Amino acid sequence: MTVNEPVQELKLYRRPMPRTWWLRNRRYFLYMLRESSSIFVAIWVILLMVQLAQLGAGRQAYQGFVDGFLRSPGAILFGAVVLAFALYHSITWHQLAGVVQVVKIGDRPLSPRQVTAWAFAGWLLVSVVIATVILVV
Amino acid sequence: MHDAGNSVKDGHGEALWYGLFAVGGVLTALVVPVHVLLNNLAGPLGLVPPETIGYDRMAKLVANPLVKLYLFALIALALLHWAHRFRYILVDVGIMGARGTIAILTYGGALLGAAVGAIILLRVP
């Protein structure tokens, strides 16, 4: 596989593009917002790892993390921001699923709208199951 | 097998990284909102019983090997999903010169994070 290599050697003209091109219109901005959601989710994952590490360190360490960090206004505000980005990722991902994923029932493919509707239904079901495990089981 | 660095640079590993990105996208889309809602908002604000995020409940849940496996998958795939998107965010804002380095730092960072996550989970009794 050397298909991509010669391109690197050629001196191609590259039209200069300002770093802020994505601020130019709403679509570009929403695209960047969608891609950026992964940054917030990743920071949340790292905080979850800290929480799990405190859990491993014992009752006192864990309770300290909950009272000192999780319950602080800053952490709750951060949680709200992460939730907004996570929801934006979920919604755009399920919408895209309808476009890129062909699902056939028998030999008739579902329409993008139907695939997206099933994706949203699956999301709701998974959320209810997880909430039930965390709250009840 | 190529070593990871070269395969990232040559684009040989592209399908693998894209696959991990996609699986990570599906998993995070399905499960992250409910976790953030309960763990970071409803729990701390007391909208659900406070013991929901308390030590006993968490320790009991994470003691289950299946929960550990699930959390490992969530940590690893969410980070690999981030790595792929962040790699192209950097390219999108015009950091073109260091493509190979960016790929190694993002995917490498995600793999390192996944390894740390595994160690942390194994240390929870």
Radius of gyration of chain A: 22 Å
- State the low-pLDDT regions of chain B, or none: 1-7
Order of helices and strands of chain A: HHHHEEH
Biggest interface in this structure?
A-B, 53 and 54 residues
Which quaternary structure do these chains form? Answer: heterodimer
- Main sheet specs of chain B: none
Gap from first CA to last CA of chain A: 52 Å
- What's the tally of helices of chain A? 5
The outline of chain A comes out as: flat
Provide a compact summary of the structure.
The complex is a heterodimer of chains A (137) and B (125). By secondary structure, chain A is mainly α.
Architecture overview:
The complex is a heterodimer of chains A (137) and B (125). Chain A has 137 residues and is mainly alpha-helical. Chain A has a single domain, classed as Fumarate reductase/succinate dehydrogenase, transmembrane subunit (3 helical TM bundles of succinate and fumarate reductases). The model of chain A has no long low-confidence stretch (mean pLDDT 90). Chain B is 81% helix and 0% strand. Chain B has one domain: 3 helical TM bundles of succinate and fumarate reductases (Up-down Bundle), CATH 1.20.1300.10. Chain B has five helices and no strands. Chain B is elongated and about 50 Å long. By secondary structure, chain B is mainly α. At the A-B interface, helix 2, helix 3, helix 4 and helix 5 of A face helix 2, helix 3, helix 4 and helix 5 of B.
Give the SSE layout.
The complex is a heterodimer of chains A (137) and B (125).
Chain A (H helix, E strand, L loop, with lengths): L4 H5 L16 H32 L1 H12 L2 H28 L3 E2 L2 E2 L2 H24 L2
Chain B lengths: L3 H7 L3 H32 L9 H9 L1 H28 L6 H25 L2
Helix pairs in contact in B: 1-5, 2-4, 4-5
Provide tags for this entry.
A: 137 residues, 3 helical TM bundles of succinate and fumarate reductases, two-stranded antiparallel ribbon, flat, B: 125 residues, mainly alpha, 5 helices, 81% helix
